[in-house]
Design brief:
This protein is α+β, with helices and mostly antiparallel strands. The protein contains two helices and four strands; from the N terminus they run αββββα. The radius of gyration is 19 Å and the shape is elongated. The protein starts with 6 loop residues before the first helix and ends in a 5-residue tail after the last helix.
């Protein structure tokens, strides 16, 4: 099937397939680990002794992926 296409068309089909698979994964798994607190729910002080709830994820430890937000899977 793909062998009959020219190289540019093959690249476009492959890119479309990758985008479609990423969109499906964003619908199935809409959350990712918070990049600020690495999922620990805590934001540590520079000394490491004190902590508070993470400001970016509001203490949940997870963030909604951008594509999931665009596809309407936001909280």
């Amino acid at each position: 099937m793909l062998s009959s296409l020219d190289p540019t068309a093959r690249a476009i089909v492959l890119l479309g397939l990758i985008v479609a698979l990423y969109a499906i994964s964003a619908l199935i798994w809409p959350y990712t680990e918070c990049s600020s607190c690495q999922g620990s729910n805590k934001h540590r002080s520079p000394s490491g002794a004190n902590f508070r709830r993470c400001r970016r994820c509001h203490g949940t430890g997870r963030r909604t992926r951008l594509l999931a937000q665009l596809l309407g899977r936001a909280e």
